[in-house]
Structure to design on (277 residues):
């Protein structure tokens, strides 16, 4: 099998009847296995009618060349729409249909092919749960609010700029988990005592660290040339944070080279948390 020229970009289309988050996520997981190939990615969400599907197919087929065949990742559930999409000349990877058929065989129940169910509206209770989790994460971001900490299912603890906020929001949005995050500031690091606001919730805490070089780089983008961003300060804060985690048996991970998705998966597995949404 001949590989595409390393300079040539292979067009990639992510198709969906909803927002396209699933198609993009799953498709990119596969594309990441080909680091030597350059891709030109485009997401096309809300393909809800056969007419729209035909327009999309025409656009994708225009990207075909003698040298490159575009890749198409689809999570479209509607059968009429899928019938039109599979007419493309591009390489069509159906991330939904073939797996849905397998599930139907196991459950002995036909799927509803309901578009709304693909983007969270099929179950109002679960959708509302996610929205409440997002509101909670926003209110309790970076220690802004300390009220209702008892309602937190998870408390992320870390020095500034270790990835608390994006991880909190991802866990809330994707999994419906109520997450608070608490920043470890200078006075918190003078001892290995847990800061008073979270002292009673050690069993819900999870620590984040980074590498001194990475943390210094991230902080320098915010406050270049400051003590806050210096390598010495970053090394000190990370060393003290790790000592605090050890003293209270708080599990932790290094966020320096991990994606938000990877961190969320490790946190949920370590804390034995289920996907609520």
């Amino acid at each position: 099998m001949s590989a595409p020229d390393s300079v040539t970009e292979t067009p990639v289309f992510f198709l969906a009847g909803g927002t396209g988050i699933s198609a993009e996520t799953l498709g990119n997981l596969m594309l990441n296995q080909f680091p030597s190939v350059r891709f030109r990615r485009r997401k096309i969400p809300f393909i809800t009618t056969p007419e729209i599907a035909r327009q999309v197919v025409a656009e994708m087929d225009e990207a075909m060349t003698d040298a490159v065949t575009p890749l198409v990742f689809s999570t479209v559930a509607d059968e009429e729409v899928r019938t039109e999409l599979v007419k493309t000349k591009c390489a069509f990877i159906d991330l939904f249909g073939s797996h849905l058929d397998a599930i139907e065989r196991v459950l002995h129940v036909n799927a509803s092919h309901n578009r709304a169910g693909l983007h969270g509206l099929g179950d109002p209770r679960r959708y509302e749960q996610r929205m409440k989790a997002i509101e909670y994460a926003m209110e309790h971001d970076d220690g802004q609010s300390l009220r209702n900490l008892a309602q937190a299912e998870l408390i992320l603890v870390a020095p500034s700029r270790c990835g608390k906020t994006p991880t909190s929001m991802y866990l809330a949005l994707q999994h419906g988990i109520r997450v608070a995050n608490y920043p470890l500031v200078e006075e918190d690091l003078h001892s290995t005592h847990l800061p008073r606001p979270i002292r009673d919730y050690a069993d819900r805490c999870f620590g984040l660290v980074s590498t001194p070089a990475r943390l210094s780089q991230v902080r320098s983008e915010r406050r270049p040339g400051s003590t806050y961003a210096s390598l010495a300060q970053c090394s000190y804060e990370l060393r003290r944070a790790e000592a605090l985690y050890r003293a209270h048996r708080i599990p932790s991970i290094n966020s320096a080279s991990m994606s938000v998705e990877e961190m969320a998966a490790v946190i949920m597995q370590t804390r034995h948390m289920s996907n609520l949404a």
User: Anything to note?
Assistant: DSSP finds nine helices and eight strands in the chain. Confidence is low (pLDDT under 50) at residues 116-121. Residues 9-119 form a domain with the Rossmann fold fold (CATH 3.40.50). The CA atoms of residues 205 and 271 lie 9 Å apart.
